[in-house]
């Protein structure tokens, strides 16, 4: 994954943030831009997996940059869309598997409670357990 856009966007945000900080009122916008620029620039040094995991944070900073520093925001938006499209299948597959596994465990726990409370017979319990495990 090419992270050049992250680095460029971060540097531009830092420079614009410094320019905003020339005035006291501008510092209200400038300081968050400097912080965001440093954060985005640091993502350029992370592994691809770490960048994909941080995509929500990148999206938030993209929105902030689009409001106050359009050039950095557009560069981040391009990076975000490009990264999301290329890695959509990888991240959703892993997430779906873990959610399905968690759902199975939750269903089995509920089923066991019903069996322990004598709401289900042994046969009903076994049938439902097999149905859940074979999903």
Detailed description of the structure:
- Helix 1 packs across helix 5 and helix 4 runs antiparallel to helix 5.
- With 135 residues, the protein is mostly helical.
- The protein is built from six helices and no strands.
- The model has no long low-confidence stretch (mean pLDDT 84).
- Helix content is 84%, strand content 0%.
- The chain folds into two domains: 86 residues; 40 residues.
- The longest helix has 47 residues.
- It starts with a helix and ends with a helix.
Topology:
Elements: H1 4-20, H2 27-43, H3 48-53, H4 55-68, H5 70-116, H6 122-133
Helix pairs in contact: 1-2, 1-5, 2-4, 4-5, 5-6
Please give the largest β-sheet: none
Class by alpha and beta content: mainly alpha
| Radius of gyration based on Cα positions | 24 Å
Oligomer: single chain
Low-confidence stretches at least 5 residues in length (pLDDT < 50)?
Answer: none
Count of the separate structural domains: 2
- Percent helix, as a range, is over 70%
The helix/strand order is HHHHHH
**How many H/I helical runs?**
6
Give the amount of beta strand, in percent: under 5%
Distance between the termini: 36 Å
The shape, in one word, is elongated
Count of beta strands: 0
| Average predicted local confidence, pLDDT | 84
